[in-house]
Input
Amino acid sequence: MKKTGNKLLSSANFYDDVSEFYEKMIDFEKNLQLRVKAYKNIFERVGAAADLGCGIGLDSIALAMNGHDVTAFDISPKMIDETQKNAAKFGLTIKTEVSSLESIPAAYKNNFQNIVCVGNTIAHLNSTQLKSVLKKICGLLKPGGKLFLHILNYEIIRKQNKRVNNIAVRDGVTIIRFYDFFEQHLNFNILSFKVEEPKNFRLVTTRHYPHRKNEIRSFLKSAGFVSIKFSKNFEGENFDQLESKDMFITATK
Output
């Protein structure tokens, strides 16, 4: 592991950098089963589905297991490679595209019955970008199509001044996710090192924008979405601004 500093990286470079150990940060099998079950309930109609900001393919695989025809998008070429490898492990065929949320090709307009954007992807967008992207996402959906969106509840993160997001030790590697707080944004950092070589660390940093419930609701409405519902988990339990760790949103075109 090469020692690196904390220069602010673009989303693409950040996720390219962490792609080789990203799976160590999550319990893949546990989270996959959670999503397979949840998406059966969230998406009543099976059809063409898009996974925006697919990462290593967790949500794409869950959708494909439920019978959806999945296209996965990510700004990081290396994350797309990981999605393809993971899909192959399950014997699944998932179409992939290297693309930011803003640059998804116009050929996909009105193409999808269902869209997921899970994993805090929209936190990488500032407010102007988010408003534009949600309008674009609405255009990707067929009439009556459904969006399932996720972002961390930054209201709690800021209130608790909780700098450390998570610490994991897997396969001899320690991975620490933490924040630096600023007035209009946060810097999101991932520090990783082998347990026996803590001085030989890697530290990568990118920017997050702390979008709140009312802002997201307003942008979804202006984009053309209806039936907007906020929840705290995949099961659809009620969201509490002051207590819920995550914010999940379902909306229909």
Residues 27-153+211-252 form a domain with the Rossmann fold fold (CATH 3.40.50.150). The chain has a mean pLDDT of 94. Residues 93 and 185 are 38 Å apart (CA to CA). The helical segments are 11-18, 28-42, 58-65, 77-89, 127-140, 154-159, 213-223.
